[in-house]
Amino acid sequence: MSTYIADLLVEHSGENFTLHEEHLNTQIVRVLKTIGYDRVYTHAKGPYLYDQDDQEYLDLLSGFGVYAMGRNHPTVIQALRDVLDNDLPDMVQMDVSLLSGLLAEALLKHCPPKLTKMFFCNSGTEAVEAAIKFARYTTKRDRVVYCEHGYHGLTLGALSLNGENVFREGFGPLLPGCASVPFNDLSALEKALQGRDVAAFIVEPIQGKGVNLPDDDYLPGVQALCQKYGTLFVADEIQCGLGRTGKFWAIEHWGVEPDMILMAKALSGGFVPVGGVAMTSQVMEAVFNRMDRAVVHGSTFSKNNMAMAAGLATLKIIEDEKLIENAAKIGGELMSGMQSLADRYELFKGVRGKGLMIAMEFGSPKSLSLKAAWSMLEAANKGLFSQMITIPLFKNHRILSQVAGHGMNVVKFLPPLVINERDRDWILGALDEVIGDCHKVPGSIWDLGKTMAGHALKSKAG
């Protein structure tokens, strides 16, 4: 049996950053080295990463939500082996595959009853692109409305619905007919829809950038307004779906039934990219309405057997291991523990989220010494303080996390749904120490802050 890949891994061990600097994105290498994230990971299991020295790291980023099952889950691995061992025909194209039918059936059992059809693709952004096309064709309208600060992907159509200018700048002109409204603002949405020319309103039930939650009446109001004005209601569950928030879909927290649900990320099981759109039969039959339109939209690698098997295995793991219940339990305990820290530390303004989609917000303190230090960071680069949480968490406590969005002092945790009580205590203990150190001025963490501020000012000057 060939050991080609294994031999390559041994031969080039530790060359990750050299190869990327020479042949790929040089800037990401610079970023990782600057903030001290330049580790070489050699293996992974569940929610843990291991470096060359076999040090264990707790991954609270989970590949932006891809690894909801943790890494290298044996059930997914076995499902993929089953596909390979059975020598199945794949992507025949002039054919319909069994595994895609089984995955569609399994997913739709978790959807609102009116969603009876599935379309599969390769990624979240492809799901968004499909939703744009399907909505336009079904309604015979051109316009699409989205929310400020929303995130729906980076291909041109999806980018046109991206509520963050940092991703859009320099890539225009974008798709015409797209307009934003503030999140959680029903009056603004009604104003945008009342012309009866909007094909779809697309919204993340919980916004990923910042982990912004809606008021309890917002999504029910969205559904009512979309029905009133003939606009399709599209729920982007690409990050918040599949158990992440302690419900299978985040929309279940508010009891709404959209016309389309978009999914991806965790559905892959962490191995083979897969995305999907659950929709009403009205939408499916409007788009694929004649035999000569049977292939009017699709994707070469969609419905491939490996992706479909990974999706089926993911659904089995969620059910067998009761991951939705675990997300609700551990997430609730984490947020309760974090709130107790917020009650003690003035820089920590509070915690929000659902299940294991959690944000911690930091803000200006009242005491003079801390206020001066905070102002120094904010003047250099808005949102810089949040790096004073994530960097020590990583360097001193081996916890991988992320800032929740550009220019905001919000730290986001998006851990695998398999984390346990040990991990909960690891997180809360580390946060207590890191946030406590941020309240000591002068101190080593504020030395880090001065260094980061210097880098930020040089970057602006450049």
Describe this structure in words.
This protein is α/β, with parallel strands linked by helices. 44% of the residues lie in helices and 15% in strands. The chain folds into two domains: 7-21 and 34-54 and 322-461, Alpha-Beta Complex (Aspartate Aminotransferase, domain 1); 74-320, Aspartate Aminotransferase, domain 2, CATH 3.40.640. It contains 18 helices and 15 strands. The strands form three sheets. The chain has a seven-stranded mixed β-sheet, sandwiched between helices. A four-stranded mixed β-sheet has the order 1-2-3-13. Strand 7, helix 11 and strand 8 form a beta-alpha-beta unit. Helix 14 packs parallel to helix 17 (421-438) and helix 16 (387-397) crosses helix 17. The protein starts with a helix and ends with a helix. The mean pLDDT is 94.
Short description:
The chain has 462 residues and is an alpha/beta fold.
Q: Which characteristics define this entry?
A:
single chain; 462 residues; alpha/beta; Aspartate Aminotransferase, domain 1; Aspartate Aminotransferase, domain 2; 2 domains; 7-stranded mixed β-sheet; 4-stranded mixed β-sheet; 18 helices; 15 strands; 44% helix; globular
| Helix percentage range | 40-55%
- Rg, nearest Å: 23 Å
How far the N terminus sits from the C terminus, by CA atoms, comes to: 53 Å
Query: Approximately what portion of the residues adopt beta-strand conformation?
Result: 15-25%
Number of helices: 18
* CATH topology title of the largest domain: Aspartate Aminotransferase, domain 2
Task: Give the strand order of the largest sheet, numbering strands 1, 2, ... along the chain.
Answer: 4-10-9-8-7-5-6
What is the highest CATH level, the class of the largest domain? Alpha Beta
Q: What would the average pLDDT be, to the nearest integer? A: 94
Major sheet details? 7 strands, mixed
The number of distinct β-strands equals 15
